Amino acid sequence: MKPGFSRMTLSVSFLLLCFFIVKAAAQDPVQIPAGIPPESEWVYGKHLEVVEGIMKLPLADREAKLEGFMKAVNPKAKILQYMPSFFSQIQEEYTKAGQADKAKALSAKMLQLFPNNSELIYQKFTAAYQAKNFAQAIELGEKIYATKPDNQTTLILADCYLATNNAAKLAEFAPKAVEALGPQKGVGFLVWMADYNTAQKNLDKAMENYNTLLQTFPDAPPAGWTAEQWNPIKVKAYALQANLAYGKKDYAGAIKSLSESIKIFPQNDAAYFIIGMSQWRLQELDKAMEAFAKVVALGKPTATKAREYLEQIFKPRHNNTLNGLDEMIAKAKSELKL
Q1: pLDDT value for 302
Q2: pLDDT digits (tens, 9 = 90+) for 65-99
Q3: What is the distance between the alpha carbons of residues 257 and 215, in angstroms, rounded to a whole number?
Q4: Could you tell me if 295 and 328 are in contact, meaning their C-beta atoms sit under 8 angstroms apart?
């Protein structure tokens, strides 16, 4: 016999031997009598005994043994649906034993072994969110939400959309987040909604958002907010109230809203300008001049138009002259503490 042929024969024999060894290793450890379906309760009980035995082994041996068992049993076996739970127990034991690397590696392996397990997907979803991997969290969260929407998933997705400036999706989820949290805890989403609706020219909806904010926090800022953060939001709310009221010719309502705004921001030239216009419409001319004088005193872009209106009211009331106008503006400066 030629040496080459002998080596080939030996190689083939070795491969066949390996095949039978692997096949034997992959056989179900439970000898199932003929006629008993692999998904039966009897088989499940026998499989459970094997798994419980594996779980009593030293921690270092359990993972490999359990994975080998899982691959060996019939795909219809009932025990398979409980495999994620057993692997999770091993993961917890790794963590308790201070073997964080093994726990992390097993977590990744479980997602490969059980790609459709909802609990594991949710764990990966929350882990991605905590790690600020917002793209992955959104991908997983949207899958979860499509099948089983819940408040926690809604809130995490809303926060992810906020972090990634996904306005289109946040417009859908921010109201749901506020509904889940309530206006006190959902204040950040409410503020976003007010700004978004204003930018979209949906002013009535924006006003609803601002009114909720003003009603929920009539005096002090929300928990965790400083006055410097909160006051500009109130100013915007009062400004929108006034603009809507003015557009409806509710001049008294516009004055009332802007008067609240001025309490927060006394040098708000735009507020004084609209107050002046409203009082002029109501023929409260002395008050209108006082408001326009303050706009002029502030010297901002609205000052030129305000002075024009101020002179129109002032002249007919002062023998068609501007005598005394400078004194009125000086008084306005003093009141504004300029």
Answers
A1: 95
A2: 999 999 999 999 999 999 989 999 999 999 999 99
A3: 14
A4: no
Locus of tokens 């809507």: 244
- pLDDT for 23 equals 41
Q: Count the alpha carbons within 13 Å of 332 in the hemisphere toward its beta carbon.
A: 26
Tokens in use for 40?
Answer: 């039966």
pTM over 0.85: no
CA distance linking residue 42 with residue 40, whole number of Å: 5
DSSP for residue 222: P
Secondary structure of residue 30 in the 3-state scheme: coil
Domain range list for the chain? 37-115, 122-181
Residues in the chain with pLDDT < 50? 1-25
Cβ neighbours for 258, distance < 8 A, ≥ 6 positions apart: 238, 239, 242, 268, 271, 272, 274, 275, 278
Quote helix, strand, coil % in the chain, to nearest 5: 75, 0, 25
Tokens of 131: 């790690």
Tell me which fold the domain 122-181 belongs to.
1.25.40
pLDDT at 15: 40
Which residue's entry shows tokens 């979860």?
Answer: 144
Amino acid sitting at position 219: D
